[in-house]
Amino acid sequence: RAHAGDPREPRRVVIIGAGLAGCLLATLLGRRGLDVVVYERREDPRAAPPERGRSINLAISARGLAALDQVGLREQALSRALPMHGRMVHDQAGGRSFRPYSADGRRAINSISRAELNLALLDVAAKTPGVNVSFGCRLTQLDLDTGELRFDTDEGPRLARADLVLACDGAFSAARRAVTFRPGFTFGQDYLDHRYKELTIPARDGEFALDPDALHIWPRGESMMIALPNLDRSFTCTLFWTAEQFAALRTPAQIVDHFRAHYPDVVGLAPDLVEDYQRNPLGSLATIRAWPWVHSGTSVGAGVATTLALVGDAAHAIVPFFGQGANCAFEDCVEIDRCLAESGDDWPAALAAYERRRKANCDAIAEMALDNFVEMRDRVSSKVFQAKVAAEHWLERRLPGRFVSRYELVSFTTMPYAEIPDRMRRQTRLTALAAAGIAGLGAGVLRVGALTSRGRRR
Ligand code: FAD
User: Which residue of 177, 197, 263, 392 shows the fewest CB atoms closer than 10 Å?
Assistant: First the structure.
């Protein structure tokens, strides 16, 4: 266990938030021999039903699975997951077409229940020696100079002290407020005009009402709906519409008429459409950028100043259109663990390396997630886009490992996100030539071969 007096090894480590990142990080730190106290605003989910409001299921892909593997949860998560091998695009006339995610059609992202995944992570954390989780404790104040934390609980205010606070308390982090007005702290939250609302397509005669092997998309230009399968054979649909579009539908007749006109194949599959629409909350969508992620107070007396590090959504919330927020938050936790191992548990060095290594990666996925919204709601239905994807898959089959689409690099590899845009720029030239090749221009194919062998020599 960490020993007292050595400033590189904090004695009192606190994690705020027993969400996805908080539980994974607590487990990883407990396994390093640290004592960790996790404070969570919600009641113990093992005793209370999960909170409604945010997405019911998550798409977890290679990065998330690699992180879960670190704590022995990969196989358990996969055994409870529904693989989705591609997108099923629903057009406005009710027609459908399936687009595989990978050239060989074999790669899949996984639809996993958020509540179940959080519970599995919490179970592992709670069983890890050195980890203690306190529920019903909402952080209201953090003072980095004194190391004092203040929580609201049902029994009244509760105080604690820490040398190191790891803020895993999500996009609207209360711990982050301790540094919001510090000189040098850059912070921004960019909201989309779009908001989201969930609806349900229940099982029909005990079976899935739609193909469960796909992430369903209803692209409608400015807006869209998606649906992911659940283990109980229902689908959770999410509408991504502008606030005006949501506000325009007030009466049951307006809601049904709108769906009949724009999502005709959904009306017969969603018996509670009107009720869901009227009852379910509207969520907001924001990209949160903060820097730096690591802060220290001024030491008081002979004490060592308290350090705060932002992790997961607290450091970099992103819009959900690449299904990467949780995957990315998990990567943060693994990176902290790796930095600790590499620095011999020297926390200041490890946290400095963590923020340096992760920032560019998180910025890159934030941009790609915004771009993917346009792809999903608009580009996916265009003929040019379809030709581009066909060309990409053609290249992937002919140049395996050397040409890999952006979707595959993000979802099916653990390549640092920041390296992906550059690689895509290099590959774009190839795609253009391959499109010409598909159109029967044999000369283009020859040039592709010449370009790749030149690329390999570099
Ligand atoms: P959170 O999961 O938000 O956990 C924060 C925890 O801190 C919670 O338990 C909360 O109760 C607790 N907390 C908050 N405030 C306090 C406080 N004051 N005191 C104590 N505890 C507190 N990601 C994917 O990878 N794939 C997807 O398919 C996907 N789909 C999404 C769909 C939607 C609609 C949205 C909104 C997000 C989606 N995400 C997805 C993103 C993903 O949900 C987040 O990136 C992920 O949950 C971040 O994990 P976290 O642990 O950092 O934060």
Answer: 177
Query: How far away, in angstroms, is 18 Cα from ligand 1 center?
Result: 10
Neighbours of 253 (CB within 10 A): 10
- Other C-beta atoms within 10 Å of 261: how many? 10
Lookup: tokens for 373: 């919204």
Instruction: Judge if the beta carbon of residue 321 lies within 6 A of ligand 1.
Output: no
How far from 148 is each of 14, 300, 305, 411, CA to CA, in Å?
Answer: 11, 12, 11, 40
Model confidence pLDDT, tens digit, residues 375-417: 888 787 778 888 888 888 888 888 888 889 899 999 999 999 9
> Of 90-94, 135-139, 403-407, 426-430, which has the strongest mean pLDDT?
135-139
Residue 169 Cβ inside 6 Å of ligand 1? The answer reads: yes
Query: How many Å lie between the centroid of ligand 1 and the Cα of residue 323?
Result: 12
Q: What is the pLDDT of residue 375?
A: 81
Domain with CATH 3.50.50.60 in the chain: 13-84+111-189+286-375
**289 CA to centre of ligand 1 in angstroms:** 15
Pairing type for strands 13-16 and 164-167 reads parallel
Q: Which of 137, 121, 116 is nearest to 55 (CA)?
A: 116
Give the phi and the psi of residue 416 in degrees, each rounded to 5.
Answer: -50, 130
Question: What's the ipTM?
Answer: 0.99
Domain with CATH 3.30.9 in the chain: 191-284
Range with lowest mean pLDDT among 229-238, 337-346, 433-442: 433-442
Considering the domain 13-84+111-189+286-375 in this protein, what is its CATH number? 3.50.50.60
Greatest mean pLDDT among 65-74, 300-309, 375-384, 443-452 lies in 65-74
Neighbours of 202 (CB within 10 A): 15
Give me the CATH code for the 191-284 domain, please: 3.30.9
Q: Distance between CA 154 and CA 135 in Å, rounded?
A: 10
